[in-house]
Amino acid sequence: MFQRSHGRTASQIRPIKITPNYLKYPLGSALCEYGDTKVICSASIEDYVPGWLRGTKGKGWLTAEYSMLPYSTLDRSRRERQFLSGRTHEIQRLIGRSLRGVMNLNLLGERTLLIDCDVLQADGGTRTASVTGAFVALKLAVDTLLRKKKIQANPIKDSVAGVSLGLIDEEILVDLDFEEDQKVDSDLNIVMTTSGDILEVQGTGEKKPIEKSLLAPALDYAQAALEDIFAEQGKALD
Fold it and tell me: Residues of the chain whose pLDDT is less than 50?
């Protein structure tokens, strides 16, 4: 049996903390902490849509940006000033797809919701923590728009959150920290709704292929872990 850091069981997530309204100026914001991973998420809105959406009878859009601050890792990382890495592009698209998956964009009007996720400290699971925190920021922003009568109906259809998993010697581990992520044979990132619907499954065989027989149990582990994460989202939004 794999010995986890901090004595966690295979199915045990790290301590989760979500601090709502962490920033003063955005419509909605949250500090999302998965153990030692800390991500600031914010939501803003602008009165425009991409060119390919103009004239589509008031349909809006949601897009996301993700970055890791230079001091977020053990060795200082350089800022991505001119060109984004493939990893950054991938994570931005993951966050955007995940949030759009629970939105009715027709209720936004010709506006774009802008989600920013900035990693203050990285210790594994930054993309899944970003999805979880981004949803809280989005919900707070939408509540503000409704209160100010900028939109007439709630475009959010469900909650969304994410969690990582690792596979090692046919054992499933939930919510990997950085040290664990370096040791597992393969890893998964799962994004689901509170209804149990799957929005994203990202899987990579790092050291050996993912066994098909482990996929269904891994999804069950993820869903169980996400129940606790959704509970933390609910506390933050209450």
Answer: none
